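USER: I would love a firmer grasp of how sequence relates to backbone shape in proteins. This is the protein in question:
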Amino acid sequence: MRPPVSHHHPARDTSRRPPRLLIVEDEKRLALSLARGLTAEAFAVDVVHDGLEGLHRAGEGAYDLVVLDIMLPGMNGYRVCAALRAAGHDVPILMLTAKDGEYDEAEGLDTGADDYLTKPFSYVVLVARVKALLRRRGSGGGSSVHTLGPLRVDTGARRVLHGETEVPLTAKEFAVLEQLVVRPGEVVSKAEILEHVWDFAYEGDPNIVEVYVSTLRKKLGAGLIRTVRGAGYRLEAPR
């Protein structure tokens, strides 16, 4: 038996506290099961079952990651995610849905979600995704700045600047860009990006890479990422 769900409220000193997760899921049995399992993995877990309450709690800024269902009472997950991003919250968001299909996934990514998991899913896969998002958010020792024309990508601080203007990217968008920026001029295959950004457990459509590349082009400029047909993608300095 796993230990029961606990609702931890750690002190402000975040140097030693466990990562704090918010689960927004209206299927109460699933939410309780996830909370028990994640608590057993040494996470601090809070659970709410309504979209509006989820938005309020996540908006407090006390969480390291939000697991967000799409079909919720009060406010659906797409709107919750979009509202958080519009308010400037960059907390990683892992979306859950019983739906499938590229349209739903693209809509979730458009609202600023960092990853996407379709029900039914393996609990092991969920934990792997959660840990990967937290790892990417917290990684980065020494700063490493890569400059491509007016574009500066700091893989240590996980920031992107175009001139003096910072370009906001989700954790997943940055992870895709990072795979390209650390190998400037080289062709990086879709399979390599999937392996490093989505981890070994990803079972979805490999075309998800194209969705993220398209989003990066919109944010950073169409000429930055070149498609090498049949091979992958290459990062080129903007002209």
